Amino acid sequence: MTQHTAQQPSVNALTPAQVEEAVDAAAEKKVRTPLLRLVVSAMFAGAFIGFGALFFIVVTSDSTLSFAAAKLLGGLAFCLGLVLVLCCGSELFTGNSLMVSGVAEHRIGFGEMLVNWLVVWLGNLAGALIAVFLVSMAGILDLNSGAAGTTAIAVAAAKIAPGWWTLFFRGILCNIFVCLAVRIGFAARSVADKVVGILLPISAFVACGFEHCVANMFFLPMGFVARLSGYALPSSGADPSVVGVPGILYNLSAATLGNIVGGAIFVGLAYWFVQGHHADRGIFGRSADAD
User: Fold this and answer.
1) How many CB atoms lie within 10 A of CB 241?
2) Would 286 be classed as within a structural domain?
3) What sections of the protein cross the membrane (predicted)?
4) What is the pLDDT of residue 41?
5) Does some domain include residue 130?
6) Helix, strand, coil percentages for the chain (3-state, nearest 5)
């Protein structure tokens, strides 16, 4: 009698090569997602990242925190956003930078990737703005006697004040961290793996003040709304008068382009070069796995 033994599921994380395959397969799935589903999924991601940004604002509104404590606690609070994106499922523009490896493997077209990026970027913006509206109507910025509103203005002003190229390079660094966290999410076998795996890279980029375009789709309009709503202006730091539509567009242009470079080139193409199928053969034409 033939006995069939059920295959036990592996609890080990995926290898880097398996992660690369998963990233490429995900890219194929993303470009085949119906438009309306893609838009709604992107709106979820924009709102989720906005919720993480709101958590950051509320936590860091405590002026008694030391510099290090505020950076650490704020970074950990912001992780809520990517936890929701990876565990609940949604389309995040910065993470979709990794789709470039699918283009390099000829599994999706370059034009298909660009369309996905545009739709997801706009969907993320819509979701973030809806989150701004909900937060404003709920009066959340009144927390800590209005200090949360003041912090929202201060955060937005600090993100607009630096030079364009400074913001651009901060965007590069940001999405290196974010896309590495997304790859950890692909490697994970459980929700706990995903959550624990992304804590350090995400909290690190937030603590270092890097620029995430989707987070800024919430931070900047939220600061603008707070300023118009009459919350007390920050007593020190960047000039709050820069928090307006021109300043928002200024930051988003630099952060978005920097995020593309950081995610697509420094992570997506770099890992494709190391782990893509073209690397299956060594420099002398032998299999890379050969003895």
Assistant:
1) 11
2) no
3) 38-60, 72-93, 114-141, 167-186, 198-228, 248-274
4) 98
5) yes
6) 75, 0, 25
CA-to-CA distance for 148 and 150, rounded, in angstroms? 5
Please tell me the distance from the alpha carbon of residue 69 to that of residue 201, in angstroms, as a whole number: 17
Domain membership flag for residue 233 = yes
* Number of domains within the chain: 1
Average pLDDT over the chain, rounded to an integer: 93
Q: With cut-offs at 50, 70 and 90, classify the pLDDT of residue 13.
A: confident
What's the pTM?
Answer: 0.92
Give me the domain span that covers residue 88: 16-275
Kindly tell me the burial class for residue 14, based on how many C-beta atoms sit within 10 Å of its own C-beta (0-12, 13-18, 19 or more).
Answer: middle
CA 32, 35, 39 angle in degrees (round to 5)?
115
Q: What is the pLDDT of residues 218-272, one digit of tens each?
A: 999 999 999 999 999 998 889 999 999 999 999 999 999 999 999 999 999 999 9
**Percent of the chain with pLDDT strictly greater than 90:** 87
Query: How far is the C-alpha of 45 from the C-alpha of 42, rounded, in Å?
Result: 5
Rounded to the nearest 5 degrees, what angle is found at the Cα of 142, between the Cα atoms of 57 and 248? 50
Q: Measuring CA to CA, which residue among 106, 231, 256, 238 is closest to residue 178? A: 256
- Please calculate the CA angle 56-88-30 and round it to the nearest 5 degrees: 110
